[in-house]
Amino acid sequence: MHTRRIGDVEVSAIGLGAMPMSIEGRPDEARSLATIHAALDAGVTLIDTADAYHRDAAEIGHNETLIAKALASHDLGKDVLVATKGGHLRPGDGSWTLDGSPRHLKEACEESLRRLGVEAIGLYQFHRPDPRVPYAESVGAVRDLLDEGKIRMAGISNADPDQIRQANDILGGRLVSVQNQFSPAFRSSEPELRLCDELGIAFLPWSPLGGISRAREPGSAHAPFARVAEAHGVSPQRVCLAWMLAKSPVVVPIPGSSRPETILDSLAATELVLTAEELTELDAV
Asked: Is 72 exposed, middle or buried (0-12, 13-18, 19+ CB in 10 A)?
């Protein structure tokens, strides 16, 4: 497994996004555990979660609890960096709400610590800016958690370039990751990716495969991904992740998965080398 870095930690170049195992349409627990274990067997050392990854109001932190169970039941579990998030909530009616208040973030971190069964969270990320709370106050709470040793590394999610710079300043240069949506169908985070590359901050694209499942459909805007995939005898999803990895050494995609076969196909992207011409073609999509 090829590796990249988040802060001072070496992680697999592709991580596992665990959200699909806990929200609507999720599989049974046995399949989820099998998926996580397959990822570990293949060399994954980064798993992304959040306290808001659950379906019903009474099961906050379902995904964190699931991951803790999977890691505890596998010999390689101790080698995994678990990245979780706080500040986003799900009332249980399918909606998403926000609470970026320092009080909530600190309480949420304590609950995440309990569910994950650790003394310090490997990577804790402020999930999404709350327009009712000054951004500096939310990030300041994350800084406090870092200073108190409750978390080992700090990151932010769904942030713009100004927020990245502000967060890094508030954290005293200790911002290690930015997790934003980025995929062939969603390119608006290019400025954030370039800034992370400039600053040496890991960029974790969420939903990196968005839109690629339709690449083989007639008239698809992502048809070049299907053409390149056919030339290499692989899936368009694998091409997508290889293209993303080629953009910068700070990129660490976290494709969501709930089946062993899909995460294994995603991980194979680390071995796929695309030509300069292919990358140029895909960039133009």
From this structure: exposed
List, for residues 125-172, the tens digit of each pLDDT value: 999 999 999 999 999 999 999 999 999 999 999 999 999 999 999 999
- Report the candidate in 162, 163, 67, 169 with the shortest Cα–Cα distance to residue 123: 67
Pairing mode of beta strands 88-89, 97-98: antiparallel
Whether 135 is catalytic is: no
Distance between CA 256 and CA 254 in Å, rounded? Answer: 6
Q: For residue 105, which of 179, 52, 65 has the smallest C-alpha distance?
A: 52
- Evaluate whether 183 touches 211 at the Cβ level (below 8 Å): yes
Is the pTM of the predicted complex or chain greater than 0.85? yes
Q: Which residues does 69 contact at the CB level (< 8 Å), separation at least 6?
A: 33
* pLDDT bucket at 94, cuts 50 / 70 / 90: confident
For CA atoms 53, 57, 60, 63, the dihedral sign is negative
pLDDT (tens digit per residue) in 173-203: 999 999 999 999 999 999 999 999 999 999 9
State the residue for tokens 């050392």: 45
Q: Of 7, 53, 222, 274, which one is the catalytic site residue?
A: 53
